[in-house]
Please model this.
Amino acid sequence: MSHDLSSQADLPLAPQDWSTWQAFKASQQEIVLPAGAVAHIPVTIRYVDVGMARCGTILLMHGIPTWGYLYHRVIPPLVAAGYRVLAPDLLGHGWSDRRDRFDRSFQTQAHMIVALLSALGLGRVEVVGHDTGGAVALILAIEHPQVVNRLVVTNSVCYDRFDDDMLDFGHPLRWQPRSVADLVQALEDSLAAGLSNPQRLTPEFRSGMIAPWASEEGKLSLLRNASALNANQTMALVDRHGAIAAPTLVLWGMDDPWQKAADGQQLAREIPGAQFQPIAGASHWIQQDAPDQFSTALLDFFAQT
Model:
């Protein structure tokens, strides 16, 4: 579905039936960002855009190795509360452009988000970033504050804490010769390790998270995404955390085996006025592990600030 830059009145008022990941994918829109906006070539971004902005617009950013579907259980209550919700697939992730012809670094993703918001005619939005999307959110708050109204960082990549498995995926000589089946098995193990509640690892969530990568094209794109993980870009933010002016919530699933709660607590201390809110009994894939607590935490924070 192509985006025709229609008025907000034409946006879907509520999410469609997202009982399957295929339905979520079918509800995505598509926009081409021109050459020079993000990369030397035009790039295609797919995204979900639903709801009316009576209370504002919320930008939801996923991380690696996920896509916008990570938020499929969180979006409906946000829309019901009066928000427009924009959930893009990051460059090289999900069903956005996956060609092996552009950078996928945190900085490039931030430029893509700024270009996407501009193309959609959006100004300041409520920015929510998870995992590597959290690193992108921090860059936006520090280097592009004109687009950030309020900031939520959740189980985010920060400092120099990077999951060994993801770094391993980024080694081309180690992973390119291996089969798609090997990659799928590694991803299935990662999904299970990042949930505190085993019943949340539903067949639909498992298949939806793996679907973009279960082909040779998808495998290569994931390897390139992983190769873009760079602690230099997150460490370059550390002495500027204190410059973040947007009201900030650091929301953390406390059982996370990769992005430790201590990092979130340190981040909250370094961002002026930031709140740290733990979610007990939830792990890294917090949007699937504790969707009700996650959406309630966002709505409460936005209402308070």
